[in-house]
Amino acid sequence: MIHESSIVLQTTRVGMLRVDPLQIRADKEASRPTLVFPLGIELFKGESNLFLDRLEAVLTTRPASGPRRRLGLAGNVSGTGGQHELIDSQPQGAGAIHTQLRIELFDEDLRLLDELVQGAAGTVAELSLVFELRVCMIRDVLLDSARGTALDVLPLARVTAEELQVQLPREYWARELAPALGHDRYPLIAVEMPALEGPLGDGLVPLFDAASRAYDAGEWRESIQKCRDVRNYVETHLALQESEHVAAAIARHLSVDENDPRIRFLDATWQALAALTSKAHHLDSVGRLQAATAHAALLVTATMVQHVGELVAPP
User: Fold this and answer.
1) What is the phi-psi region of residue 85: left when phi exceeds 0, alpha when psi lies from -120 to 50, beta otherwise?
2) CB under 8 Å to 208, separation ≥6 — which residues?
3) In sequence order, what are the residues at sequence separation of 6 or more whose Cβ sits closer than 8 angstroms to the Cβ of residue 18?
4) 232-288 pLDDT, tens per residue?
């Protein structure tokens, strides 16, 4: 089930683009959810040699009614092949040059894509790849033994590619793609950072963002260290007295007994976070233990910051 679209120069078909939806995969190692489309590109050799200079693609929904929605960032093709290390024209029947088109998605795109697949009337969800491309004609090949090969090229005007309709099977999405994109993980909690004008100040969100970005990049030790920066920031803005714990300051702020089980829970959890973020970031930044520790540190930091922010916020 390979889908095709034509590359057209004015009214003449000069090439083809091909996608097999059953070969689409998810990149589990990318810093954000990413769909990888195996793209076959074929340029037909005519009177002049052609090559693909640039190709950009945008993934969109194709609902039965209503407006389309763009999904993720634009993907670019920079794959090489053939003569001069370019995707260049071949005699018809020679076959396509295979490359990859990567579409990075945001959380909202994942939600929308999942809704689209789940709500599809039939067995497939309708998507589209919309292309912008530049094709050049090779006028001459200049050979220089000292400098290598140089091409005399002419960009061609009015080269377009037809929209490529992709029918994504619902079963394939559920079995292969959704789990790899994180849909096998239950979204247990959502946290809210304290307001910028609140008692914890306006420097908290950038610090937590830095911890989150380090985690996304796989820098486990750096992420834990940034969580420590968040914790230190909160402790500073609570104006703790000498050797005072955060929980004790909260109890004083709320005029409640320090032995209240809710205050004792806060104290035990905050002290565990303090021990973790003070020591774990000195360890190696590789391995399953450190990755899982960084994940836990990020989650606990987020939830405890929200908890403290709610307790010290004005009534």
Assistant:
1) left
2) 193, 226, 230, 301, 302, 305
3) 2, 3, 4, 39, 40, 41, 42, 96
4) 999 988 888 888 999 999 999 999 999 999 999 999 999 999 998 987 666 665 567
Hunting for tokens 């004083």 — which residue is that? 252
What angle (nearest 5°) sits at the alpha carbon of residue 173, between those of residues 168 and 179?
155
Q: For the segment 72-112, what is each residue's pLDDT rounded down to a tens digit?
A: 999 988 545 545 456 878 877 778 888 899 999 988 888 88
**Long-range residue pairs from 237-241, CB within 8 A, at least 24 positions apart, any chain:** 237/199, 237/200, 237/201, 238/308, 238/312
Asked if residue 273 lies in contact with residue 304, where contact means CB atoms within 8 angstroms, the answer is: yes
Q: Do 143 and 149 touch, CB atoms closer than 8 A? A: yes
CB of 258 within 8 A of CB of 193? no
E-state strands within 1-147: 3-9, 12-19, 25-26, 34-43, 49-61, 70-77, 87-88, 97-104, 124-144
Write the single-letter amino acid at 150: A
Beta-carbon contacts of 260 under 8 Å, excluding residues fewer than 6 positions away, are 251
Query: At 153, which helix (H) or strand (E)?
Result: strand 148-155
Q: What is the DSSP code (8-state) at residue 275?
A: H
Q: Which residue has the tokens 């703790």?
A: 240
Place of tokens 């994109």: 181
* Residue 160: both structure tokens together: 């377009």
Closest by CA to 68, choosing from 127, 110, 125, is: 127
